[in-house]
Predict the structure.
Amino acid sequence: MANYTGKTEKYGNPLYLLVILSVLYAISFYNYLLFHALSEIASVAISFGIFAVVWTSRKYITNGYFLVVGIACFFVGAVDTLHMLSYKNMNVFGIDNPEISIQLWLVARFLGAFSFLVAAFFADKTVKTRLISIFYAVMTAVFLLAVFRWNVFPETFNEETGLTQFKKASEYAISLMLVLALVFLWKKGRYFDGKVVGVFSLALTLMIGSELVFTFYQTFTDNINLWGHQLKTASIYFVYIAIVEMGLLGPYRRMFEDLKKKEKSLRESEEKYRLLAELSPDAIVLHDKGEIIYANSSAGRILGADKTEDLFGKKMTDFVHKDYKDKIKGRMRALYDNKIIKVPFREMQFVRLDGSVVDVEVSGTLVEYGNRKLIQSIIRDITRRRETQKKIEYLSSHDFLTGLYNRFHFERMIANFSENKIAPVSVVVVDLDGLKKVNDTLGHSGGDRLIRNAAAVLSKTFRKEDIVARIGGDEFAILLPGTEEDEVLILLQRLMKNIDEENRIAGGSKLEFSYGFETARASEEISKRFRMADESMYKQKQEKKKRLLG
């Protein structure tokens, strides 16, 4: 059991013990026999009290130490009662023999010391209380038979010489057992709560002192005997504090105090949660079987309500786009049936009160509110994120200057066609002639203008299903799925016509292209045909240069 580290707690009241001991001490001057009887009654009452609490709580006690000592307290108290009734001059049993009383004293002290010694071994174990009770009943019965019936108990007191060696040796042996019990208790200290070990140690130390004191008295009424009983009463009082107040009632007392704190904290956290919910940029909606019973201000904004109260009573699924309704209903059923604990965020579309569509992501969690099971939905407007994603996707696949696809997208489409076994696929590679000359004479702005004009002509020439891409500074490539060579030649003729028309209308720097093309009739050949088309374009470009040189 882990140590409790909360605020310092007070157990019992030392003033009570001080009052009891003071009253008993005062009574001893008046009548020692009465002092002894009241002292034993006090000890027995505490012992029986410990037993009563432990026995009624036995089903809930997990520490075997408390169970063993608590059960033993009943039998120790019973023997102490017999010791008190058989004390010299009490004449309850019609026996005026101090020997019986001393023998019963040793039996009670042995039972107590034995219990503390063996209890440490049960601190982390499950204890069968019925077996422990039977064991102590049998052991106590054997001792009582030895004292009252069999007369085999060794002599403990002699009227002329006082305490016998057996009596003193027994007290020392009991003291040794208590010392060992103290050692084993500290070794098992991790199984006790708070300061229980310290209080038990104080109780055991007082018991040891009591036993040692009882090796010195000469008469039944001398001061040594008195202080021995006072130490014994104090020790059993601290056993009560350790077991009942600290070990058993203490955790429950702390539990109730913690519950009160948690109740207060819960009220405060509810207010904080309500405030946080109202300030949250995400919509927070509570719905009971789909009917909205709470919505924060962000929910009103996202769902298009002038006031959040306008959402109350409406069905959550009324706001879900028809493409997602079945999925949402299925997830709500799964939450209510405890098939899932939480629905993670999923992207979908909602329909606002004005009929407009908004991109959102939604998560759902089953929560308990009062005695009802509700679903708490978090709705996040992702319109801007979607727009940003689209921009990123566009920039990752398009050339920023021309708006055509870039080389990355072009090569990705080659891989896609190859993977999906698309054939035939024709590849056209086009190079813009004279770009360097334009850059040198008109600057890069003139060159950029020429590239954009070339891109516009290519886009105008080829079909929507064709992939037109700028794959280099002055180089373009076109993928034509499902296209044979004769269709490519027709498209190239259209390209030449569109170039002439552009040059006639635009004026300025003229567009001139070198090109090459190939057709892949098997999907795995597309990359190869792309390289061959590039080589064909390069050859055409070289031939043009030779003709110009002469």
User: Anything to note?
Assistant: The domain at 398-549 is CATH 3.30.70.270 (Alpha-Beta Plaits). The chain has 15 helices and twelve strands. The longest strand covers residues 357-369.
